[in-house]
Structure formats: structure tokens, C-alpha cells
Write a structure and sequence with these properties.
- The structure holds 3 protein chains of 3 kinds.
- Helices cover 76% and strands 0% of the residues of chain A.
- Chain A has 2 domains: 3-79 and 156-424, ABC transporter involved in vitamin B12 uptake, BtuC, CATH 1.10.3470; 80-155.
- Chain A has helices spanning 3-24, 27-54, 61-76, 81-111, 116-145, 165-184, 192-209, 211-214, 230-234, 237-245, 250-282, 284-294, 296-301, 306-332, 342-356, 361-389, 397-405, 409-424.
- Chain B has a two-stranded antiparallel ribbon.
- The termini of chain B are far apart.
- Chain C is built from 10 helices and 10 strands.
- Chain C has a 6-stranded mixed beta sheet with strand order 6-7-8-3-9-10, sandwiched between helices. A 4-stranded antiparallel beta sheet of chain C has the order 2-1-4-5, with helices on one face.
- In chain C, helix 3 packs parallel to helix 6 (176-188).
- Classes of the chains: A mainly alpha, B mainly alpha, C alpha/beta.
- The A-B interface holds A 55, 57, 130, 138, 183, 187-189, 191, 193-195, 197-199, 201-202, 205, 208-209, 342-343, 347, 350-351, 354, 404-405, 408-416, 418-419, 422-423, 426 and B 42, 44, 99, 102, 111-112, 114-116, 118-127, 129-131, 133-134, 246, 249-250, 253-254, 257, 301, 305, 307, 309-310, 312-313, 315-316, 319-320, 323-324, 327.
């Protein structure tokens, strides 16, 4: 069996699993899995770029995904003029001041001679800057957050088309990645892992707390869509007629239509990114990346700036994660900072990459789709299994405890899948060529 | 100006909580640093190992409580702790046999073990949630306070109260005892020295007749004990919730790295540095400042540098500053 | 793509991985085809082999040392001197040949087991526990011993007085020559039947080198046979009872140290005239 046939077979199996979901459960459920699977595949491509091609250990995927989500709010939501009037200028001024303080500190660190004087000046600058920043920021934030807090209480966005938010999400993530990479990769030894882990938590903390920016835990809902609303479709006689042609009732037909439209959009993005990733992989740049990965000393001896290359690929991979994050928030129609959890948005993506095959873009896509399918379906399967297992048991606290706990089967399963794949098929389902 | 009251408030709201939190972080970081020094990877499952040990201890505590067995004023959990440590040690040893050992035989690079530990993290996390559920669990009993704020006020006649909870005192005392034991073990016993030797130079340890597998077993047992103690103390002091333990990974890693990964002394220093910075930066200083400032200068706001939700940010910024100036951490880690 | 699926993909992240002191030693006991062509107290007999499935580095190479002797392996760079040493210690995939100690075939033993059998080995690099004190280094050397080893430690301190002076100091803080003394001292702590030294004078100054050679002779006088690899061929052969000149993994010349020093071919090719 040739490799291509095998790989096509693997994709067909995942497709089959999703189709099976459609037949056994519902087509809405199947399409939901497909859509999130496509998004997961994109995230996996991003992580695979970093780990697979350059051996960079990014455990802050969640942060970049969340930045993508923030981009959707900033781009597509309508602005809140009252909030801007109340404190917009103050907040902008404070942020500029903060950025200036940090820049000044960095410059100081570089230009002044090391010593007690430098440290004192630095501390005075940073502490003074911080208090000034807070003095300007705090009242403005309070003013903004007091503007109709039940509905807005934040500055809002730019009311631009939501699709524009996807590339912007990528840019936002790329910017953050550049800052992190510049700091963590520039240190004498590489501290990227802990840096990404920390930054991701900080990004989530900012989204949860800075209500003026993202409404915090009050969530931003009603984000504009790139596809029609179900309710509009249902009241469109032409659509109802076409639905009837497929023997579908208008409500089901409209939900399916919306999900299919998303699936189409996501597939296009996935294919474009996959094509770009493949092109990059096979370009001189990609070959050099792999040369560095396989023998950094030799690459360095040949005059390659390893840190710079690593920074490039780290930024690119993070940007891909940001795009995926923006797509996800768009599909959800809301930004819920409380829902970002590292197990789901960082470590699960890693499972996808490892299971799919580190270093292979198609593997990442397959891993993304397959693991997402499992993530969703393990829970009902677990409930079903425990139902069967406990069917002989008399009702009691143990039985009800087991049934209640079935929901936690998915974490256990993901761990087992990762461990088993690493042990018995360490190159993943579609190994690197 | 009322210096004494300010001092009491400082102790009550900053020093005591930071001491006990710092002890918990130090114990957690010691576990991480031992694994880093001897098995040579950062164990992502450490937070969940803490949760597992604490969970077993809680289950045994509940059973003891239901049997009416207790320690009087002390929390029953202390009685259940040895069982928790034992079960946790068995758990990590089984994990090592089933999972990690294979990669040592393959001479897999440490980063592969990091990924493996992610898998173990998922499994343990799922297991703990499966057994005890994802919710908050309360298991502390005994006397809640050694001295309560009201008693302190009556005793001293001061305006500010100083509360010392039993759990806080136990945390600090236990941490001191455990750390002393660990250092005695590592520096004075033959087995402890063989662990340091293995961490320093694996090949030479082998050529000296030190059995690596035995070193690994000892390491896991010690790590299980440290993790369980840390987990139980954290649970007694705050509360037990599986997700919180998972989130402790970041401050614990930060502590271990700030101190210098692989250095036990560094892990302890790192734990306290992180704890004190988190507490001082997220504390609202108004209460203390009103005693110190003359009337007109009294602050209007809370004088809280950052909201408590940014405590992770604090650990991280401290970490970054230390790494920028001392890339190897404060205590120049790498070997035990 | 590298052949090893458990490769690190070039990852150098120190916040999650620790390469310090990581093991590189590979145990490769056993042989495909045993050989017995000569007798000696310790002999690596007609060894042919290489690393893993790689090409052969040694070709029918024999090295041996008898009681009360110093045997020296010399030769040009890349001649396989250290490789021969590794083969004797069970760290090379030997496809033909045997290793015997005191008449017993130990070809099938792992390096650790050979230590237990009485072989002491001092690697060329990373041969001390840098973070531990001198005394702790010696203690670790005696790890396999269950009896009281204080008199052995006294002997080592008598041999290397400087170590006694610095016993409480971390070994990593010592000078190059002192480190080598710690390394040899550590190996002596097992009371080995034979001592193997891989380039003990690598990277030390000529004066220190002379001192180290003196110490090695003293160790040999205590009755321990010594098999060593040396880069400084002339000085080494001067103290050697037996010498082996290896070229491309084969025995080119062998004989007593004096004979080899006198041999015009050896002089011309390896001793610079």
C-alpha cells in the first residue's frame, strides 16, 4: 500500500467518522465537529510549524488563540461613542505612556553603563511610569466601564467586516509572538516554553479583567457574522422552498446552511494555509529551517542566524494560531474569556500535532480533525460505556458517581492517546518525510 | 501615625499569608527541581501529582472523620497524610514503570519526556476529576485559629487584629521539617549523595556502580512525598479543587526557574520570592498606609498595584527580570 | 528527518529540559565471535567492532596488561585508541573478539558489572562529579563497597596529598591536574584489580603532566596493573612496560616501551624522529 493511499485512507476514516455522527446523531452535530475540527487543524498547523520544523516548544497556544478572539471584537463590533467620549482618550494616552515607559527602560538598559546608577534610574523610571500610567488609566477605565455596563461598558470595535478580523487576529498574535520571542529566544539559553506558558495566562487575565477592552467575564456577544442568520433564512421564501426541495424543514435547513457556509469558509482558509505551509516547507527557507533543526551547530557555522530564523517561524506559527482563534470566535459569535483553558487550547493542540505526526502538515490537519472528533465524542461514548457497565449494578451512590464522572473520561482518553501514540507510533499517523 | 498597628496589619495581611503560600510553592518547586535535576525534564504532571496525593489524603481524612478518629485541635488530614504519600508514591512509580522507563531505555531526549509528561498530566487530571469530581472539597477540621483577630485585639488592645490560622502554622512548620529532612538526606546519606552524583554526571555514576533505576525510584518516592505534602498543605490553607492545582504549575515552575532549576536551595528561595511578590503586589495597601500617613496624605484608592487576577503576571514578570540579569537563576542550578 | 523518533528536533529549551550530566554511555556487552589468541591478566583479544550498526573502527585489535605492568596505547589521532579502551570496557559493539579478566571471560558483562568484577575506568572527560566535594567524589567511587573504606581513602590521600588538603572543596573548582587526581582517586576507591585511564594528561600543562605520570607510576607500584591511552607518546612509552601502537584500528607495532622507543619506524612515524 503506497503512502498516499494510506494517507487518503486515514483522512477517509476521519471523514467517515464525521459522516457516521451525522447519520447516528444529527447532521448539525456532525457539521459542528467538522467546523471545530477545521479550526483545530489550523491551530495544529501553527504548532507544527514551530515544533515540527524548528523544535520550538510553544505551550502558550491558548494566548494566541485568545488574541485572535480579541481581534474579532476589536474589528467587527460597533464602537461605543459614549465610552470613547468618557475615557477613550485617557486610555489611549495611558497605553501610549506605558509603551513609552517600557521603551525608555529598554533603551536605558542598552545605552547606559551597567551599575548601580543605571539600576536606580531604571527603577525610578519604571515605578514612576507605572504610577503615572495608573493615575491616567484608572479614572478613564472607570468612566468607560460605567457607560451602560449591562450592555456595553467597553470601547467597542471598529465596525468593520468580520472577515477582516481573521488576518488582524493573525497580526495581533504575531505581534505578541515577536515580543515574546525577542525576549525569550534572546536570552543566553532558550526559555521559550516557560515564557509562552506565562504570557498565555497573562493574556487571558487581561481579557478577563480589562472590561474596557473586552468586557471581561461579562463576555462580548452578538458578534457580526460573515454568513446569514438562521432567522433571516427562515423568513426567506426562496430558501424555504429550496429546503422543501431537499425534504427539510426550514429550521433544520437554515442551521445546516449556516454551518455549511462556515465549513466552506474554514476549508478555504485551511487549504490556503496548508498550501502556504507546504510551499514554505519545500522552499529554500524551509530546507534551511530543517537544516538548523537537525544540526544547529553546522547551520551556525555556515553563518545562519539561528535565533533570527527561530523568531521568524515562531511568529509565523503563532500568527496561524491567532487566525484560527479569530475564526473560532467568529463562529461562536461571542468572546468568552472565561472559557479559555490551557488543557483545551494548548495541550490538546499538542496532542493533535503529536498524534498527527510532528513535522508533517498533513499529519497536523489529520491529527486536528481526529483528536477534535474524539474530544467531542468520548464523552457520550463514555456515558454509554458506563451505562452498559453499571447496568447490572443496583442503584446507589457508586453507580450515580460513576455515571456523573463519565464526563471526565475525555481528559483521561486524550492522555492515553498521546501516551500510546508516542510509545508505539512515535512519528505519528502521517510521519514526516 | 501608628506604626504598631501598621506592622500588625502588614503581618496579618501580607507576611503570614505569603509565608504559608511561599512554603507551599517551595515544596512544589522542590519536586519539580528534583525531577529536572535527576530525570532531566520539567514534569508537567506535577500539579496533578499534587492533586492526586491530596485527593487520596482527603478521601482517607473523610473516612477517618466518619469513624470519629481525629487529632483533636490538629487537622485529621495530618493523620491521613502518610497514606496519601504512600498511594501517590505507588502511583508515580507505576507511571514510571509503565510510561517513563521505556524512554530512558531508548535514551530519548528530555524534551520527549516533557511531551510524555503532558500525556500523564491529562491522565492524572482526568483520574482525579473522575474520582473526586471537579468541585471544591473541604476537608480541614480541628481548631481553625491558633489566635483569632478578635482574641488578639482583646489581648493587646490594638485596633488591628492578627489572625494566625492553624493551617498556616502547620504549613510553615511542616515545610521547615520536610526541607530539613530533604537536605539532610541529599547531603548526608549515601543514597542521597548517589542521587546528587547521578544528577551531576550520569555516566560516571554508572561507572561508580550507582544503579540508575534505583536512583530514579528514590527520586519518584521523594517527589511523591513532596507533592503530596504540598498539595495537602495548600488544600488545608485554601481549598482543594483539581483545576487550581493544575494552575499552580506556573508559579511552581516560576519558583523553580527563578531559584535556578535543579538547585533545591534555589527552589525554596524562588518559592518565597514568588509568593511574597504575588501577595505584596496584589494586596490593597490602603489599610496599612492609613496608619502610616498623616491624615491629609491618606490614600483615597485601595493602593493596590494590580488586581489579584494578575497574580500569574507577577510570577512571570519576576521570572523574566531574574532571567534577564541571571540566566541561570539565583542559585545557578543544573546539578543537585 | 533523523533516524531516531525520540529526537529533540533541535530543541534547546532550558526551562523544560536539562542536558547537564546526561548519560551518553552505551552498554554493548557480548560478541558475535569469541577469540582466544593470548593470555594476560586483562586482555582485549582480537577485537573487531564499531558503534551500533556503523562501520568497524577496530580491526582484530589486541591490547593487554599483566600484573605489575603499565601498558600504554599510543597512535595518531583517530587511530581508535579510546575506542579500543571502550571495547575493553563493554561500550562498543564488538563483533569479534573476547575480553578476559584474570582468566575469566567478561565479554558478556555490562560496564557496570565489569566495575563490580574489579575494573576501574577513568574516562577522558567528565570524569569527576563537579558539584560534589573531593571527599564525596571518593565516597561515590566506593559506592559498590559495603565494607569500611576509610583506609582506602587514606591510601588515596597519601598518594594524592593535595586532595586531602582540598577534601571539602567542590571538585569542579579545582585545577585541571587536581581534577585528574580526583578522577584517578575515585577509580581507586573500588580497590580495582586493574585501572584503565583514557588520556589522563589531556589538556594539562607539561609540568603537571610530569607530575601526573609520577603519580601513575606510584599507583602502579601499589600493585595495580594500568592500561592507559596516551596522546603524549614519548613520555608515555618511557614509563610503559608494554606499548601498543594503533593505526586505523589495528595493531601496528607492539613491544616493551623501550623497544618501541628504539624502533626506527615507530620513531619516524609517531615520535617525530
Amino acid at each position: 500500500m503506497s503512502e498516499t493511499v494510506r494517507n487518503i485512507g486515514l483522512f477517509a476514516i476521519v471523514g467517515g467518522l464525521i459522516l457516521l455522527t451525522g447519520v447516528m446523531q444529527s447532521w448539525n452535530a456532525a457539521l459542528l465537529i467538522l467546523n471545530m475540527g477545521l479550526i483545530s487543524a489550523i491551530m495544529a498547523i501553527g504548532v507544527n510549524l514551530q515544533w515540527g520544523f524548528a523544535g520550538l516548544f510553544n505551550i502558550g497556544v491558548m494566548g494566541f488563540v485568545a488574541l485572535g478572539g480579541l481581534a474579532v471584537v476589536l474589528v467587527s463590533m460597533p464602537p461605543t461613542p459614549e465610552a470613547w467620549a468618557a475615557g477613550g482618550a485617557g486610555i489611549i494616552a495611558a497605553l501610549v505612556l506605558g509603551a513609552l515607559t517600557v521603551t525608555a527602560a529598554v533603551l536605558l538598559l542598552r545605552k547606559m553603563q551597567a551599575g548601580a546608577t543605571r539600576n536606580i534610574v531604571l527603577i525610578v523610571l519604571l515605578v514612576g511610569g507605572f504610577f503615572l500610567y495608573r493615575a491616567i488609566l484608572d479614572p478613564s477605565v472607570e468612566a468607560v466601564e460605567n457607560v451602560d455596563p449591562a450592555i456595553t461598558g467597553y470601547l467597542g470595535g471598529l465596525a468593520l467586516p468580520v472577515l477582516l478580523a481573521w488576518p488582524v487576529g493573525g497580526l495581533l498574535a504575531a505581534g505578541a509572538a515577536w515580543l515574546i520571542g525577542k525576549t525569550a529566544l534572546g536570552l543566553r539559553s532558550d526559555y521559550l516554553a516557560i515564557a509562552t506558558l506565562g504570557i498565555a495566562e497573562i493574556i487571558i487575565a487581561v481579557l478577563k479583567n480589562e472590561d474596557w477592552l473586552s468586557r471581561g467575564v461579562k463576555n462580548v456577544v452578538g458578534i457580526p457574522r460573515p454568513v446569514p442568520y438562521e432567522i433571516d433564512l427562515q423568513s426567506d421564501p426562496a430558501f424555504v422552498e429550496r429546503a422543501a426541495g431537499f425534504a427539510l424543514d426550514p429550521v433544520t435547513a437554515s442551521t445546516l446552511y449556516v454551518k455549511l457556509s462556515y465549513a466552506l469558509l474554514f476549508t478555504v482558509v485551511l487549504l490556503v494555509l496548508l498550501w502556504m505551509a507546504q510551499r514554505a516547507l519545500n522552499s529554500p527557507w524551509g530546507r534551511m529551517m530543517r537544516a538548523i533543526r537537525d544540526n544547529e551547530v553546522a547551520a551556525e557555522a555556515m553563518g545562519k542566524d539561528v535565533t533570527r530564523r527561530h523568531l521568524q517561524i515562531f511568529v509565523l506559527g503563532s500568527a496561524v494560531c491567532g487566525i484560527a482563534g479569530a475564526m473560532m470566535t467568529t463562529m461562536d459569535g461571542q468572546l468568552t474569556p472565561g472559557s479559555y483553558q490551557p488543557l483545551r487550547f494548548t495541550f490538546l493542540i499538542w496532542v493533535m500535532v503529536i498524534v498527527g505526526g510532528s513535522g508533517n502538515n498533513f499529519g497536523a490537519v489529520l491529527g486536528g480533525m481526529l483528536i477534535w472528533f474524539l474530544w467531542v465524542q468520548v464523552e457520550p461514548i463514555g456515558v454509554f460505556l458506563l451505562d452498559v457497565l453499571t447496568s447490572g449494578m443496583s442503584d446507589g451512590p457508586l453507580k450515580s458517581h460513576l455515571l456523573d464522572s463519565a464526563a471526565h473520561m475525555r481528559l483521561l482518553t486524550m492522555g492515553l492517546v498521546l501516551i500510546l501514540v508516542l510509545r508505539f507510533s512515535p512519528r505519528g499517523l502521517i510521519p514526516e518525510k | 501615625m501608628d506604626f504598631l498597628n501598621a506592622l500588625i496589619a502588614l503581618a496579618n495581611y501580607v507576611l503570614i499569608p505569603a509565608m504559608s503560600y511561599g512554603s507551599q510553592l517551595a515544596l512544589g518547586a522542590l519536586g519539580v527541581t528534583l525531577i529536572y535535576g535527576i530525570l532531566r525534564f520539567s514534569n508537567f504532571a506535577h500539579g496533578d501529582t499534587m492533586a492526586f496525593g491530596a485527593m487520596v489524603t482527603i478521601l482517607v481524612t473523610w473516612w477517618l472523620q466518619s469513624m470519629g478518629i481525629g487529632l483533636g485541635p490538629m487537622p485529621t488530614a495530618l493523620l491521613a497524610l502518610p497514606v496519601g504519600i504512600l498511594c501517590c508514591a505507588l502511583m508515580v512509580l507505576a507511571t514510571d514503570k509503565l510510561v517513563y522507563q521505556f524512554y530512558r531505555e531508548q535514551k530519548a531526549k528530555p524534551v520527549i519526556l516533557v511531551i510524555v509528561s503532558m500525556g500523564v498530566m491529562f491522565v492524572m487530571n482526568g483520574l482525579v476529576r473522575f474520582i473526586i469530581g471537579p468541585d471544591d472539597q473541604n476537608f480541614s477540621d480541628g481548631t481553625r485559629f491558633i489566635i483569632s483577630a478578635r482574641d488578639f485585639k482583646q489581648l493587646t488592645g490594638l485596633d488591628e487584629g492578627l489572625a494566625l490560622r492553624t493551617s498556616q502554622a502547620i504549613t510553615v512548620i511542616t515545610a521547615v521539617v520536610v526541607v530539613a529532612l530533604l537536605f539532610w538526606f541529599l547531603n548526608r546519606t549515601r543514597t542521597g549523595k548517589s542521587m546528587r552524583a547521578y544528577s551531576d554526571n550520569e555516566d560516571l555514576a554508572l561507572l561508580s556502580g550507582i544503579n540508575p533505576e534505583r536512583v530514579v525510584v528514590y527520586t519518584w518516592c521523594i517527589v511523591a512525598a513532596l507533592a503530596t505534602v504540598a498539595g495537602v498543605l495548600y488544600g488545608l490553607d485554601k481549598s482543594f479543587k483539581p483545576f487550581t492545582y493544575f494552575q499552580l504549575l506556573l508559579p511552581i515552575f516560576a519558583s523553580a526557574i527563578v531559584g535556578g532549576l535543579g538547585s533545591p536551595l534555589g527552589a525554596i528561595a524562588g518559592g518565597f520570592i514568588i509568593a511574597f511578590s504575588e501577595v505584596t503586589i496584589t494586596y490593597a495597601w490602603k489599610k496599612i498606609l492609613v496608619y502610616l500617613m498623616p491624615g491629609p496624605l491618606e490614600p483615597d484608592g485601595l493602593v493596590q498595584l494590580m488586581s489579584t487576577d494578575y497574580k500569574f503576571a507577577v510570577s512571570f514578570v519576576i521570572l523574566l527580570i531574574v532571567l534577564l540579569f541571571r540566566p541561570t537563576g539565583l542559585f545557578r542550578g543544573k546539578a543537585l | 528527518m533523523s533516524a531516531d523518533p525520540y529526537d529533540d528536533r533541535g530543541n534547546k529549551d532550558r526551562s523544560i529540559t536539562n542536558p547537564h550530566g546526561i548519560g551518553t554511555l552505551r552498554a554493548a556487552p557480548g560478541t558475535g565471535h569469541g577469540m582466544e589468541t593470548a593470555r594476560a591478566f586483562l586482555i582485549g583479544d582480537s577485537m573487531t567492532g564499531g558503534y551500533g550498526k556503523g562501520p568497524d573502527i577496530l580491526h582484530d585489535c589486541t591490547v593487554a596488561v599483566d600484573k605489575g605492568e603499565i601498558a600504554v596505547i599510543v597512535g595518531p589521532n583517530g587511530a581508535g585508541k579510546s575506542t579500543a579502551m571502550k571495547a575493553v570496557f563493554g561500550m562498543l559493539d564488538v563483533r569479534q573478539g573476547s575480553v578476559r579478566l584474570d582468566g575469566e571471560d567478561i565479554t558478556g558483562l555490562t560496564p557496570q558489572d565489569r566495575v563490580v568484577k574489579g575494573m576501574g575506568f577513568v574516562p577522558q572527560t567528565n570524569n569527576i562529579f563537579t558539584s560534589m566535594t573531593v571527599e564525596e567524589n571518593l565516597e561515590m567511587g566506593a559506592f559498590i563497597r559495603t565494607d569500611d573504606f576509610s583506609d582506602t581513602m587514606t591510601q588515596v590521600y597519601d598518594l594524592f596529598p593535595i586532595l586531602k588538603e582540598k577534601r571539602a572543596q567542590a571538585a569542579g573548582e579545582l585545577s585541571g591536574g587536581q581534577r585528574q587526581q580526583v578522577a584517578v582517586g575515585r577509580a581507586l576507591m573500588t580497590r580495582p584489580k586493574v585501572l584503565m585511564l583514557d588520556e589522563p594528561t589531556a589538556g594539562v600543562s607539561p609540568i603537571v603532566m610530569d607530575e601526573l605520570f609520577d603519580r601513575i607510576i606510584e599507583v602502579a607500584r601499589t600493585g595495580i596493573p594500568i592500561l592507559m591511552v596516551e596522546q603524549n607518546a614519548r613520555q608515555a612509552l618511557e614509563i610503559a612496560d608494554k606499548g601498543y601502537v594503533l593505526v586505523q584500528g589495528s595493531n601496528a607495532y607492539s613491544g616493551t616501551g623501550k623497544d618501541l622507543l628504539a624502533d626506527p619506524d615507530v620513531r619516524k612515524s609517531f615520535l617525530g624522529g
